[in-house]
Every structure is written in C-alpha cells, then in structure tokens.
Design goal:
- By secondary structure, this protein is an alpha/beta fold.
- It has three domains: 46 residues, Transferase, Pyrimidine Nucleoside Phosphorylase, Chain C (Transferase, Pyrimidine Nucleoside Phosphorylase, Chain A, domain 3, Up-down Bundle); 244 residues, Nucleoside phosphorylase/phosphoribosyltransferase catalytic domain (Pyrimidine Nucleoside Phosphorylase, Chain A, domain 2); 90 residues, Aldehyde Oxidoreductase, domain 3, CATH 3.90.1170.30.
- It is built from 17 helices and 13 strands.
- The strands form four sheets. It has a four-stranded mixed sheet with strand order 1-4-5-13, sandwiched between helices. The chain has a four-stranded antiparallel sheet with strand order 6-9-11-7, with helices on both faces.
- Helix 2 runs parallel beside helix 4 and helix 16 runs antiparallel to helix 17.
- It is globular, with a radius of gyration of 22 Å.
- The two termini are 38 Å apart.
- It binds uracil (URA).
C-alpha cells in the first residue's frame, strides 16, 4: 500500500477500504506518513467527502488509536451528552446533576475552552478546590457512590484525532461534515458510554451556521453511533445568541447554580430539560413525555441542586458555593458597560464575535496552553428581539487588569445589529433527529 495511491483513489471519487483508512491514520500517528500526504488526503476528503461506511471506519480507527474507557464497572446504562460548542454553554453543569438525581449514572469526560467556545472543565475549575483530574479507579468509585463524576478527558483519548485535528486546523479542512462527525464520535466512542444525546448547535455562534449543515452533521453523528450499535439522539438547538444570561467561567457556574435553584432563564431551562429528558429516555426511564415530567420534577424539587452539591463534595470543591455562589466564586468586581449606539430592536447578534470578545477579556484561550482568568466574562442584558434605547446598557463586562477592553468593545460593536424591525426569534429547540 502507498499513501499516494490512496490519495489518488479518493481524489478520483473512490471508496476507501478499512485497510486503507487504518493504514493512513495509524501511519500518521506512528510518524511513518508525513504531514503533507495526510494534508492532501484531508483536502481530498473536504471536496469528495466520506460515505456512511467510510465515516464509521474512520471513527473506529481514531477511537482505537488510544485508550478506550471501559465503563462496565459502573452499573446501569451510561448515557453521555455532547455539545458541538457554543457561547455561554453551561448546559452540562445543569444537565449532569439533573440526570444523576434520577438515578442514572453520569460518568462524564468533558473538554476545555478552545477558540470562541467555552469548556465545562474550565468552568468547574472556577469552584475553589474542585479537582477535574481523578484516577480511573476514583472516577468509577465516585460514579458508583455519588452517581456522578465530571472529569477532563484523559491525555490518551483518541490521539489520532488530536494529531489530525491540529493538521485540519492549519490546512483549512476543519469544516467538513465527515471529518467533524468522525472527530467528535471517536472521542465519544472511546469514552465508553452506551448511548449519546448530541446537542448540535446551529447559528452564528456555532460551528454549523446553517440549519442544513447542522442537520447533515446531526444525521452523520447519529448514523456513526448506530453503526457501532449505540443509540443516539441529536437535538438541533439555536446558537444565534449567547446561551442564557452569562458568558465566562465563574459567571456560568453562578448561572448554573441559579438555574438549579429554579431561577434559570426560560430558554436555557427549556434546553436543559429537553436534553435531560432525552438522556432519561435513552436510559430507559420511560417515553419522552414521562421523561420530561421526571426531569421537571427533579429540577423543581431541588433534588438536582443537591446532586450538584454531591458532585462538588466528591471532587473536593468548596460546597458552600451552592449556598453562597457570589461570595465563593472568583467574580471580578470591575464592571464596565457596552451600550446601544441607537434606538431599535436587537435584530442580529454575531455570537462568535461575542465569544471572541470574551476571550479578549481573558475568559478563553486561543492556544491550547493559554491561561484562563476565571473571574471575567459578560452579563448579557439584551438579547435577540429586545428593544433598546440609545445608550441603554446591552452587556455588562466583568474585566480584570489583563483584559483587552478596547478590542472586546470593538468586537461587540460589530457583533450587535440594531434595526427598526422586530426580528423573528427561533425556538431554542429546532429539531430532534433519531
Ligand atoms: N469538535 C471536535 O471535537 N472535532 C471537530 O472536528 C469539530 C468540533
């Protein structure tokens, strides 16, 4: 087998075999095939795509390239949730304890912030003392004893995806649906769950900017799960504005706690309840209507909040954060305001720019090893369709001495459009694909 022939075959529209995909991927991981040949293959896939079988094989090969977590020491059906990434997406902080409070074991491996999107692990690390790295034995012990554990992904989870993703990032081949779906699902399969709820974001703050692309991605991911005999449901959700009220690490933990106390923003609550209900459905708790009512009861009764406290205690965080979040969380006291430059309705928000503006404040990272300032972020006062007067506050920015306030404000000015017409607002839940 020669890399040249495999690239040529795909370039001419051929279908790659398992042996060919394995040869290319593992040859790259082992350093036997150079960057330039894999870059050529990726660009070829960008234009010719992979069919259902090729995607399933690529996913399997990448999942097998490192550790595959065996979750069998944990009893019951293990259901994982994955979001394709957005701005202000603190959903896991609510959904994980909500589902665990119903007796479903939550063994979750989450990611960190990258690009304009945030990461659950960085958010949890804003809770003083909270440990996001546990040994595998401790991880299982916590899930069996408390019903929940949320940790960072192990270093050796799908290493082929890490290496290929870095190359895609530098060769303009990230935004191809076969490659994205195989990349996400390889990590999910390696994580060992039995079933998946996939939150596929659509809109200006998402990877997928159009509904058609998001649907295609959702169908590809559900298809990959099914071809590995795993159940999956994809929920298409709106990301044309930041999710909820806050963006930034400590601020999003504050919002999650407020939501678990019953004081959540309605669209965010609807999203959390919907994703939780589908997780319960996949765990066999009943039909979807029964599951919706189960999760609503758990949120309203405070059981989900108590499960969040269990999670914090189990991972050595300061549990007082649940009762006194504003005192315990590191939240900047320096607040400046971004104001409307004219009167009208908020007609469009370029949410990706809001995410990047938050990074200028210090909340995210542009490179993998950048440090994060947990105390900074934004409170979104005005969202899609809201009316504003000239000079009325739209966003409060929580800043620190290292924040690049000038760049952040410049981006926010570009991100927010105000017009005379009230826009049509999309539902937070757009579609469900099974
Ligand atoms: N997230 C991933 O993990 N992989 C991609 O390719 C895109 C988003």
């Amino acid at each position: 087998m020669r890399p040249y022939d495999i690239i040529l075959k795909k370039r001419n529209g051929g279908k790659l075999t398992k042996e060919e995909i394995e040869y290319m991927v593992m040859g790259y991981v082992n350093g036997e095939i150079p960057d330039y040949q894999i870059a050529a293959l990726l660009m070829t896939i960008y234009f010719k795509h992979l069919d259902k079988d090729e995607r399933a094989i690529l996913t399997e090969v990448m999942a097998n390239s490192g550790d595959r977590i065996d979750l069998t020491p944990i009893k019951g059906t293990k259901v994982d949730k994955h979001s394709t990434g957005g701005v202000g997406d603190k959903t896991t902080l609510v959904v994980a304890p909500l589902v665990a409070s119903l007796g479903i074991r939550v063994a979750k491996m989450s990611g960190r912030a990258l690009g304009h999107t945030g990461g659950t692990i960085d958010k949890l690390e804003s809770i003083p003392g909270f440990k996001t790295t546990l040994s595998l034995d401790k991880f299982f012990e916590n899930v069996n004893n408390f019903g929940i554990a949320v940790v960072g992904q192990t270093a050796n989870l799908a290493p082929a995806d890490k290496k290929i993703y870095a190359l895609r990032d530098s060769t303009a081949t990230v935004d191809e649906i076969s490659l994205i779906s195989a990349s996400i699902m390889s990590k999910k399969l390696a994580g060992g769950a039995d079933a998946f709820v996939l939150d596929v974001k659509v809109g200006s703050g998402a990877f997928m900017k159009t509904l058609n692309d998001a649907k295609e991605l959702a169908e590809a991911m559900v298809g990959i799960a099914k071809s590995h005999n795993k159940n999956a449901v994809a929920v298409l959700t709106d990301m044309d504005e930041p999710l909820g009220t806050y963006v930034g690490n400590s601020l999003e933990v504050l919002e999650a706690i407020n939501t678990l106390k019953g004081n959540g923003e309605p669209r965010f609550v609807e999203l959390c309840l919907t994703l939780s209900a589908w997780m319960c459905y996949l765990a066999g708790k009943g039909d979807i209507e029964q599951c919706k009512s189960l999760v609503k009861d758990s949120l309203e009764s405070g059981k989900a909040l108590e499960k969040f406290r269990d999670l914090i205690i189990a991972q050595e965080g300061n549990p007082k954060v649940v009762d006194f979040p504003e005192e315990i969380l590191p939240i900047s006291k320096n607040i400046i305001t971004f104001k409307a430059n004219k009167e009208g309705y908020i007609s469009k928000i370029d949410t990706e720019k809001v995410g990047i503006a938050c990074n200028y404040l210090g909340a995210g990272r542009t490179k993998k090893d950048d440090n994060i300032d947990h105390s900074v972020g934004m409170k979104i006062l005005k969202k899609h369709g809201d009316s504003v007067l000239k000079d009325e506050p739209i966003i409060q920015l929580y800043v620190s001495k290292n924040s690049n306030i000038e760049e952040a404000l410049k981006l926010l000015n570009e991100a927010y459009q105000i017009s005379n017409e009230k826009p049509v607002i999309s539902n937070i839940i757009i579609d469900v694909i099974k």
